[in-house]
User: Which sequence fits this backbone?
């Protein structure tokens, strides 16, 4: 392996890192908001809400993200006159926004199930205890149900964040020059796939490591009752 070439590759791929992080953060944030409302709809929306949520989750979990991205970027182009009439063509003609929409819709399906499981994990005894203390409605949800649900959902949600971070690599197939897109361009120019992909993989690995450490810190902060207390030496 040529170390000098790998260092040059690293510097080039770093220029695509901001776009990779922007795609990940935007889709995770938007998908998290959508997933929150979907999970609420599944829990308190009655038969219609549960049916809609199940259908949404079935479609977006049951089909590959790459296919969804192709359908949004290439497929919706067939409906250009309609999108122009609706004023949406300026969004769907841009690869960046097509990638964000595909990633957002996909992660919302997985995240809504994670959030729904967190809400379902709140025991009836905890809710009844809060009601006995005079809490109800929004106060009960904000101070009791939501914090407990977040603690239960956080480990699985951390995994989903990591998966979405790596899924941004699929945006390269619709001409977005993030880390993987730049890696493909370098390979086409140099025909040195091994070194380029090692460097690209190392960048993703480093980001994943940082995210996992951050999630561990958040889990520790949100679970004070599980922290090991020092022994009482008195």
Assistant:
């Amino acid at each position: 392996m040529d170390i000098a070439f790998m260092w040059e590759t690293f510097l080039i791929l770093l220029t695509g890192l901001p776009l990779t992080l922007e795609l990940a953060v935007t889709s995770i944030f938007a998908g998290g908001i959508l997933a929150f409302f979907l999970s609420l709809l599944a829990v308190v929306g009655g038969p219609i809400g549960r049916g809609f949520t199940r259908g949404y989750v079935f479609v977006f979990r049951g089909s590959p993200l790459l296919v969804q991205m192709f359908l949004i970027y290439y497929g919706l182009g067939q409906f250009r006159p309609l999108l122009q009439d609706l004023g949406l063509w300026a969004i769907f003609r841009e690869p960046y926004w097509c990638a964000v929409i595909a990633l957002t819709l996909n992660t919302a399906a997985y995240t809504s199930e994670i959030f729904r499981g967190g809400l379902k994990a709140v025991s009836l005894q905890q809710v009844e205890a809060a009601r006995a203390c005079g809490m109800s409605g929004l106060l009960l949800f904000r101070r009791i149900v939501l914090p407990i649900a977040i603690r239960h959902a956080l480990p699985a949600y951390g995994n989903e964040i990591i998966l979405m971070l790596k899924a941004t690599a699929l945006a390269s197939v619709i001409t977005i020059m993030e880390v993987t897109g730049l890696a493909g361009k370098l390979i086409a120019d140099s025909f040195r796939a091994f070194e380029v992909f090692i460097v690209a993989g190392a960048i993703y690995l480093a980001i994943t490591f940082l995210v996992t450490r951050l999630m561990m810190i958040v889990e520790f902060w949100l679970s004070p009752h599980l922290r090991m207390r020092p022994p009482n030496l008195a």
The domain at 22-167 is CATH 1.10.3720.10 (MetI-like fold).
